Amino acid sequence: MTLSADAKTHPVAATSFSAQRFSVAPMLDWTDRHCRYFLRLLTRHTLLYTEMVTTGALLHGKGDYLAYNEAEHPLALQLGGSEPDALAQCARMAELRGYDEINLNVGCPSDRVQNGRFGACLMAERERVADCIAAMRSAVSIPITVKTRIGIDERDSYEFLCEFIQAVAERGGCDTFIIHARKAWLSGLSPKENREIPPLDYERVYQLKRDFPSLTLAINGGIRTLDEAERHLDYLNGVMIGREAYQNPGMLSRVDSRLFGAADPHADMEAVVEAMLPYIERELSQGTYLGHITRHMLGLFQGVPGARQWRRYLSENAHKPGAGVDVVRQALAKLSRRPAYSPAAS
After folding, report:
1. Site feature Interacts with tRNA: at which residues (predicted)?
2. What is the pTM of this model?
3. Which of 70, 154, 162, 185 qualifies as a FRET site for 311, CA 20 to 30 Å off?
4. Domains and CATH numbers, the chain
């Protein structure tokens, strides 16, 4: 895996830990490039994922769906698709752009994703998934991984899961799987309900590791603290955290020291905000709206006096015409332990 120059000189480079040890999940409409840059200020070594990008968007869309900042490494692209040739072509595009990993989405249960014949419904087509992985592996040299569920609909036996993993590993050559420890209902539940209603079964993922010890297995689903992450790492190779990392990003500020044996990037959350300001200024100069960036920062000060005022001030002011970094500084001054911000003193 290719790390940024920053990461190469960091103490963790000398350890045996891989970035797969801890990651933040790909989340549609959430983990965009602004979010990832912000999260990288909190942790240098956590593996970050893009939002899911479909092969159709990459091959036929007009936007640059592969754009990112070099500071975001280590960075994985999550692809949605089910045609081996198209996925291989997209994997080559991503490798040329410098991505560190390609991940195939075999876990999303939304109707839109199913209509495109990808996501969780592909668990019913393990041979096709294997062919997709094999095609991408033949096209690129970077790792190809799969994010999946423990089952779908009534096909939720442990045997079904093992058959899927075995086929994709042996025929496709995939050696790394991220397992959301819930099954998915392909109809009757919304994507949000599919993240909450099917019961978690962590033991099933632990058993999978015991039965496939040579595979790299990471677990996802319902994990909210670093204490929980450490407990899962007693049994598995990696942990992926989703919405908790987004809604309470401050939790990531101690990942490097606790899980990677490295120094944490910043002493406190206020220093993270200050480090974010040059990026915000650059983006504003290129036409980005402040609110498109600061929406990812709202949960940073959970539990800190003044956190509600921080969130309210950003929410009410970041979308106003001409809003700039002074809005962020004013919001920061709402925290109880800080003196009021004065533009003249900045």
Report:
1. 105, 192, 195, 308, 311
2. 0.91
3. 70
4. 5-259 (3.20.20.70), 269-345 (1.20.120.1460)
